[in-house]
Structure formats: C-alpha cells, structure tokens
Specification:
This protein is of the alpha+beta class. It has helices at about 15-25, 35-50, 85-90, 145-160, 165-170, and strands spanning about 55-60, 65-70, 80, 95-100, 115-125, 125-135. The chain is globular.
Length: about 170
C-alpha cells in the first residue's frame, strides 16, 4: 500500500514535528519488519525538513553500529561504539547535538558536506539497540526543539515496534 505524508515545509520546526509525529505513529506497524518501519521514519523526517541532508538509523550488534534504513548519500556501514557522534551517543545513552561536526573529536564524515548533526539513541529496557542520526549541510541546524521531538519519535518507535523482531534482526 502506498503511503504519503502531508506537511507544509514553510511551517516552524515545532509545527512540522507536531504535524509529522501522528503520521509517523500511524505508519509504524509492529507486525512489519523493523527495517520497513525505520525506512518510513527516515523518509518522513528527510521529506519534512529542508534542513536535513541525511536521516537514518544505525543498529547495534556486537558492540558496533551497522547502517540501517536511511535517506541521503551513501553512508558509513559500520561504526564502533564510542567512535564518532553515533558511537558516542550509543555509548553515553544520550542525545548529542553537534553544531559544527569539524569541532567534534573523532567525527566520522560519511558526507563531507555535512556541517551539523544530532544523534538520538534508541533505548529498550535500558539497553541501546540503535541510533537515529540526522545531518545537515548547514552549521548549527539542530537545537533543543529537535532533541525533544526526535526523542519523542524514538520513544514511539521503541513503544510500537515488536521487540521480538528487534531481537531477531540483531542476532
């Protein structure tokens, strides 16, 4: 079944998030594979915001983050926990906002045009099983509003996606 989202890109970030969150909630289906669900979330977030150049997920296996569903340029396929912004977010179990990726020690540049980034961990029962990574070609594109709403979106993902499917895919 074809799906589509409705969003006015001329709205403020808060208004865009408020418009897309119910649509993301609707698209997430616990009966479908995790990759299908995460693919739709990354597509919605990439389509909704003009400031995003890359949106995607990395999923944790054997203390490494492996590239999952994404929208954007070809990306790094493997990141060690603790390395780069994604690895640091997974290790610290917290959202990290980077205004200028060139000032982040050990930043992993999958897209050399990327200037700023936000990474939100996906946490289930206290354990990280992946991260949501959002990049921009502009400096300081992300702030506490993005942090709050992206954490809400990640919470919805964790709540709605079938935990059994997560465990199966990460084996």
């Amino acid at each position: 079944m074809a799906e589509s989202i409705v969003v006015d890109k001329n709205l403020s970030d808060v208004e865009i998030y408020k418009a897309v969150i119910p649509q993301i909630d609707y698209l997430l289906n616990p009966l479908e594979p995790i990759v299908s669900n995460l693919a739709n979330v990354s597509a919605v977030l990439k389509e909704a915001f003009t400031k995003t150049s890359w949106v995607g997920f990395y999923l944790l296996k054997d203390n490494k983050l492996f590239l999952g569903p994404f929208q954007g340029k070809v990306a790094c396929t493997e990141i060690k926990v603790g390395s780069g912004v994604c690895g640091a977010s997974a290790q610290l179990k917290e959202t990290i906002i980077v205004d200028d990726v060139n000032s982040f020690p050990g930043h992993i540049a999958c897209d050399s045009a990327s200037q700023s980034e936000i990474v939100v961990p996906l946490i289930l029962d206290g354990d990280v099983f992946g991260v949501l990574d959002v990049d921009s070609h502009k400096l300081a594109s992300f702030n506490l509003i993005d942090k709050m709403y992206l954490e809400i979106i990640c919470g919805i993902i964790v709540e709605k996606i079938n935990v059994r499917l997560i465990n199966e895919i990460l084996k």
